[in-house]
User: Fold Retropepsin-like aspartic endopeptidase domain-containing protein from Pseudofulvimonas gallinarii.
Amino acid sequence: MSTDFRLAGWREWLALPDLGIPAIRAKLDTGARSSALHVDDMTLIERGGQRRVRFALRPGLDLERVEKEAEVIDIRPVTDSGGRTRERPFIRTTLQLADGAHWPIEMNLTNRADMLFPMLLGRTAMAGRLAVDPAQSFLLGRPEPR
Assistant:
């Protein structure tokens, strides 16, 4: 097992380049298994025998709302912080750090309007890559659009 971890704070700026999101504030939560992304609207569709999801999101407070579509890799039950379990669609996308490091992650789409952070990065996406210092914030810098 590699010990070449990047030290991250409990909240960080991350990027999701496959979704056209150059920077998004995320809470890094080692207690959450999966990652989650806030979407405003979501519709499951089927095209050519493939499950897909159409969704709308606002990548940042100062950015326009955009509509995206992605392949649904799975639909799984997720238990939220309030103890409620609901089925959520999961997509695969690329996570990018400010230094350009990137890797594929799975994340579920949900409405996080009542949460402080539009994205939650769970332990599965961090495993073997990030170590979290809960006393620190924004250690990784802010990703620049490519």
Helices lie at 123-126. The chain has a mean pLDDT of 91. Residues 6-38+76-133 form a domain with the Cathepsin D, subunit A; domain 1 fold (CATH 2.40.70.10). DSSP finds one helix and twelve strands in the chain.
